[in-house]
Amino acid sequence: MRKTLIAGNWKMNNNVKDSLELVSSLINAQLPDEVDVLICPPFTALYPINEILTYSEIKLGAQNMHFEVSGAYTGEVSPLMLKDVGVSYVIIGHSERRQYFNESDELVNEKIKSALIHDIKPILCVGESLIQRESNIEKETVKNQLINALRGIKSEDAKEIVIAYEPIWAIGTGKTATSEQANEMAAFIRNTVEEIYDINVSENLLVLYGGSVKGDNAAEIMSQSDIDGALVGGASLKAVDFLKIIMYNNHVQ
Ligand code: PEP
Predict the structure, then answer these.
(1) 177: closest CA among 207, 211, 206?
(2) Percent of the chain, pLDDT > 90?
(3) Beta strands in the chain (DSSP E)
C-alpha cells in the first residue's frame, strides 16, 4: 500500500524567521494521518526547523547534496551534514539543478547512490522540456533519465527511492500537465522501473507529480491511479496554500 507524500520544495526562499513561522503554522494544523508531509527548506534553515519538529510527524528534506562525505568541496553540503540536522529525504536532479548547475545524469546517479548509503531517501526528479514534448520524445527522455540515474543501484536500495515527474514546462509557469498527461507518464515511470527491477519495486514505488500544483488542482491530480503525491514549489511557501494541498481530500483543518 503506497502512502501519499506531499513534499514542499521551498527553493531559495525564506530566511530562518520566515521558515520557523511557516513550519509553526504547519505544526499547529491537524494534518491527515494518511498523508506524509515533507518540507525541503534551504540549508540555512534545516537546523532550527529540525529543533521545532521534534514532536511533529512532518519530515525534513534537503534540496540537494554533494555525494562525498567531507573534503575540499567549497560551498557543498554532505550527506553526513544533512543527517546531522535531521534530514531524511533529499531532492536530487531537480530540473533547476540540471539547467543552471549543469547536473548530468551521471552526477545525479552518484548523488542517489550516496544518499542511499547514508540512509537518506532520494527524491529523483525527471521530466521533459517543452521542445521534447512537442517533438514527442517525452517518454524516451524520461526513460533515459531513469536508466542513467538508477544505474548500478540494487533493487533493495531502489525501494527507498521516490520519483517525481516534473515536466519542465509546468514548473513555476502556472501551466499544469493535464491529470491524464501526468498519470500517463507516472504509469510509464512505474513500468520502466518494473523493467529495470521487478514488480515488487514498481508496485511500491512512490511517483509524485510536480508542476504548478495548487489547492484547486490537487484533488484532481491526486485522484489519478499512478500518482502518489506531489512535489510542490511556489504553493508550499505559504502555510494556507500548502495546507490546502495537504488537505486535498477535504480533511478538517
Ligand atoms: C518544483 O520546483 O519542484 C515545482 C514543482 O515548482 P512549482 O510548484 O512552483 O511549479
Answers:
(1) 211
(2) 95
(3) 4-9, 35-40, 59-62, 89-92, 121-126, 162-165, 206-210, 229-232
64 to each of 155, 177, 252, how far by Cα in Å?
A: 23, 25, 33
Q: What is the pTM of this model?
A: 0.96
Distance CA(26)–CA(190), nearest Å, equals: 31
Distance 107 CA to ligand 1 centre (A): 22
Which ligand 1 atom is the nearest neighbour of the CA of 214? 8
- Set 21, 34, 94, 203: catalytic member: 94
- Taking only the tens place, the pLDDT of each residue in 138-194 is 999 999 999 999 999 999 999 999 999 999 999 988 888 899 999 999 999 999 999
**From 6, 9, 92, 209, mutation site for ligand 1 pocket: most ligand atoms within 8 A of C-beta:** 9
Exposed / middle / buried, residue 53 (Cβ in 10 Å: 0-12, 13-18, 19+): middle
Q: Label residue 2 by pLDDT band (50, 70, 90).
A: very high
Catalytic residue status for 166: yes
Q: Which CATH number fits domain 4-246: 3.40.190.10, 1.10.645.10, 3.30.70.260, 3.20.20.70?
A: 3.20.20.70
Per DSSP, 6 falls in state E
Is 29 a residue whose pLDDT tops 70? yes
